[in-house]
C-alpha cells in the first residue's frame, strides 16, 4: 500500500491527510481485491458446504408413516443444523411454503405383474423446480415427479421385469434400465437396485441410455458424464416436467428474495484466469457397482460433573 504524497493539501494538517489517505487506500484494496468465480478449489483443510442442506428442513410425522398432506418446514437460513453458525450467506428469508413428501422409489410388484396408477393431480411444488403428480392405486396414493407430458387421467405403469426383448418405452412408466431399448431418455435414476431415485430429478433434465455390456448399463447424464449401473436399477422413461424453468427470467431482485436467496454481490467483483475457459479431459465413468469404503462413525459425548 503506497500513499500519494503529491495529493497533500497545504491548508490541512499533514497527519489528518495521511490518515484519510490510509483509510481510502485500505477501502479500495478491500473492495477491489475480492475475486469471485465458480468451481474454485477450497484451501487445504477447508470442507466445502454440502448442497441442499442449509435451506430448510421438513418436519415429518412422528409415526414415520407416509402422507400426501402438506408438511411444515423449518427454515435453516444458511445455518448449520447443529452448531447454528452461518455456513452459506446467500440463503435466507423467502415466502412461506409447505413441503410435499415425494416418493422417489418406483418399485414394481415382486410377482412380475405391472403396477398401474392413475394420475389424479399435477401441480406446482414450491420446494423443487419440477412439477409433481399425485398418483393413486387402490387405497394408496403418493406424490411422484411428473414427466414432461404427464396430465390428469393418465395411467403410469411400474414393472420390475427384464424381458429378453426390450419393452416399448412409454413416457412416465418405470422399468429396470436393462429392459429399455438403447437411446431411451430417462430420469429419476437409481444408483443401487431398490434404493430409490437419486439423480436427474431437476426440471427439464434427462439422461440417455447409451449402451449395455453383459448385465451393466451405461447412462450419459446431462453433464455428459457417464454412469455405470446394474441392469436392475429402476428408471423413469422421458424427460422431467417444467422444461422452460431455466428460460424464465427472474424479473426483479424482489423475486429472488421471495425464493429465499439473499444478495450475492458487493460493489464490484474481479474475475481471475481460473474462471476462464479450459480444455479438460473427459471425466471418468462413475462406477456405482464398485465397493465403497464405509464411513467412520462419530459419536458426540457429553461429560457432566
TrEMBL record:
Keywords assigned by UniProt, alphabetized: Ribonucleoprotein, Ribosomal protein
One GO process term, biological-process aspect: mitochondrial translation
SUPFAM superfamilies, per database record: Nucleic acid-binding proteins, Translation proteins SH3-like domain
Every Large ribosomal subunit protein uL2 RNA-binding domain range: 78-158
Record InterPro entries: NA-bd_OB-fold, Rib_uL2_dom2, Ribosomal_uL2, Ribosomal_uL2_C, Ribosomal_uL2_RNA-bd_dom, Translation_prot_SH3-like_sf
UniProt cross-references to Gene3D superfamilies, sorted A to Z: 2.30.30.30, Nucleic acid-binding proteins
UniProt record similarity statement: Belongs to the universal ribosomal protein uL2 family.
Name recorded for this polypeptide: 39S ribosomal protein L2, mitochondrial
Organism: Trichonephila clavata
Top-level taxonomy: Eukaryota, Metazoa, Ecdysozoa, Arthropoda, Chelicerata
Amino acid at each position: 500500500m503506497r500513499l500519494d504524497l503529491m495529493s497533500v493539501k497545504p491548508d490541512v494538517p499533514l497527519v489528518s491527510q495521511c490518515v484519510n489517505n490510509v483509510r481510502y487506500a485500505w477501502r479500495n484494496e478491500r473492495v477491489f481485491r475480492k475475486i469471485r468465480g465458480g468451481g474454485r478449489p477450497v484451501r487445504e483443510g477447508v470442507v466445502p458446504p454440502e448442497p441442499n442442506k442449509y435451506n430448510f428442513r421438513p418436519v415429518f410425522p412422528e409415526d414415520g408413516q407416509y402422507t400426501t398432506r402438506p408438511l411444515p418446514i423449518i427454515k435453516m437460513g444458511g445455518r448449520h443444523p447443529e452448531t447454528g453458525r452461518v455456513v452459506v450467506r446467500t440463503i435466507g428469508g423467502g415466502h412461506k411454503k409447505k413441503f410435499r413428501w415425494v416418493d422417489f422409489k418406483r418399485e414394481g410388484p415382486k410377482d412380475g405383474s405391472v403396477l398401474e396408477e392413475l394420475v389424479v393431480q399435477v401441480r406446482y411444488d414450491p420446494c423443487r423446480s419440477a412439477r409433481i403428480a399425485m398418483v393413486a392405486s387402490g387405497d394408496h396414493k403418493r406424490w411422484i415427479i411428473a414427466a414432461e407430458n404427464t396430465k390428469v387421467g393418465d395411467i403410469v405403469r411400474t414393472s420390475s421385469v427384464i424381458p429378453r426383448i426390450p419393452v416399448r418405452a412409454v413416457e412416465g412408466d418405470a422399468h429396470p434400465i436393462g429392459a429399455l431399448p438403447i437411446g431411451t431418455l430417462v430420469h429419476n435414476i437409481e444408483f443401487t437396485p431398490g434404493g430409490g431415485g437419486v439423480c436427474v430429478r431437476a426440471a427439464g433434465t434427462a439422461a440417455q441410455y447409451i449402451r449395455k455390456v453383459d448385465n451393466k448399463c451405461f447412462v450419459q447424464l446431462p453433464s455428459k458424464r457417464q454412469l455405470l449401473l446394474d441392469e436392475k436399477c429402476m428408471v423413469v422413461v422421458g424427460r422431467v416436467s417444467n422444461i422452460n424453468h431455466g428460460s424464465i427470467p427472474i424479473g426483479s431482485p424482489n423475486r429472488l428474495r421471495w425464493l429465499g436467496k439473499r444478495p450475492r454481490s458487493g460493489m464490484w467483483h474481479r474475475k481471475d484466469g481460473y474462471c476462464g475457459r479450459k480444455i479438460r479431459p473427459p471425466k471418468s465413468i462413475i462406477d456405482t457397482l464398485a465397493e465403497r469404503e464405509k464411513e467412520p462413525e462419530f459419536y458426540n459425548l457429553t461429560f457432566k460433573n
